[in-house]
Amino acid sequence: MPLIKVLSNIRNIYKVNLLTSKKYLTNNWFTVSTVVITGLNRPNDLKHLMTMMDEDIESMTDLPTYEKKLQFKAKIISKQRDTIFKGQIAYGIPKAINALGTLYDLTPIEVRDILPTSPIRPTQIWQKMIEQRRRGRELFDKIYHPNPDKVMNELNLLYPDLHQLCYDYGYGYILSEPSVISDKETSLILLTGCLSQQVIPQLNGHIRGALHNGVSHEELEQVYDATLSLFEHYQIPPPERPITPNV
């Protein structure tokens, strides 16, 4: 099946309303698709996703002018960039670089010109870094409730630098930033990334974490269905469908 058809089916799974921009940014069809395509290291296929989203925007009746369409495209690209950036926790920096490079090339110049040019995660001010780490601790505790200290102690036992990396950099600097992507969406990115990499122990942890962050069982099923559709397209043996726990 052509990828454009697979993506169209995923969009149907998520019941996207193509007539309005309302709720489009919070509909996770393109977030999940972006994570899986990046995680499987098929960055060039982001062009098909971009084409579909451009067509979606053109059909939205509440974006009547070129300027409104341009601003909305910039919001989508901003969300895709941070999706790929946060997803590196699951699939690694090299794949994130590949996808971000492709996304940059696919972004029209007029959209690039209105995207932020400064980091949304400043490190020049120590107080900002303290705030990042505080948010990171809160996110970590929520995801791994009721045993966050046990998980962190296990990481420290494996290698103290891993403990520090996860706490300060992974959760503090990368994952806890809420300005573009919410904690709930962050959990969806993590579990989708783990599913695409077939790292089952981490996936099981992030399924629970997603439920703690307000993800519904229906939304989990949507992630599984979308991910498996892309695995089938790429002719990759699908991961075993995980059992969703009651939390």
Give the key terms.
single chain, 247 residues, mainly alpha, 12 helices
Strand content: under 5%
End-to-end CA span: 37 Å
Low-confidence stretches: none
Let me know the largest β-sheet.
Answer: none
Q: Oligomeric status of the shown chains?
A: single chain
Count of β-strands = 0
Instruction: Give the CA-based shape.
Output: globular
Order of helices and strands: HHHHHHHHHHHH
Structural class: mainly alpha
Percent range for helical residues?
55-70%
Radius of gyration: 18 Å
Q: Helical region count? A: 12
Q: Output mean pLDDT.
A: 94
What's the short story on this structure?
With 247 residues, the chain is mainly alpha-helical. Helix content is 69%, strand content 0%.
Characterise the protein shown here.
There is one protein chain. The protein is mainly alpha-helical. It has a domain at 3-120 and 216-233. The model has no long low-confidence stretch (mean pLDDT 94). Helix 1 (3-13) packs antiparallel against helix 12. It is globular, with a radius of gyration of 18 Å. It has helices at residues 3-13, 29-39, 46-59, 66-91, 93-106, 109-112, 126-143, 148-158, 160-175, 183-197, 200-212, 217-233.
Give the topology:
Layout: H1 3-13, H2 29-39, H3 46-59, H4 66-91, H5 93-106, H6 109-112, H7 126-143, H8 148-158, H9 160-175, H10 183-197, H11 200-212, H12 217-233
Helix pairs in contact: 1-12, 2-4, 2-10, 2-12, 4-5, 4-10, 7-9, 8-9, 10-11, 10-12
